[in-house]
Amino acid sequence: MRIVSTLLFACFLLTAPLSALADNNPDALKKKIMFDQKKLVVMENLELTDQEATAFWPVFTQFQEEQFMINQQAARLIVAYASTYQTLTDDQAAKIVEEYFNIREARTATLKKYMQKFSKVLPGKKLFRYLQIENKLEAIARAELAKRVPLAQ
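Request: output the structure for the sequence above.
Response:
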């Protein structure tokens, strides 16, 4: 993967939803920039034919919209945790754990749903390659996030 665009995307993925919540404003511009960065990474690594691209990008856009909403849920959870991590109660921690798994399940369900849609517009190897790209981007974002989120006290 292209290192620069991948790292740029991962950093933006982590900060856009969180800063949007902190500003308390609709984050259309931040969302567009994040979408454009991710699209660039996918374009650089998926190597679609014109015919594949015509069918792929509308599904990609729908998928990113749903993923963005899930990422917003995760950002709200992180913001809530950040405000209480030093004084976290057992009950609060249990609620965070439950919400964490709800978000993970939503991500997995959305990914599975869209992989079925992508399988109708991409050959098997490119479908797998796209899944790898998504997984790598998520892994980078999760690793960066893990560095920044403190352990509960």
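The helical segments are 3-23, 28-46, 50-84, 90-118, 124-148.
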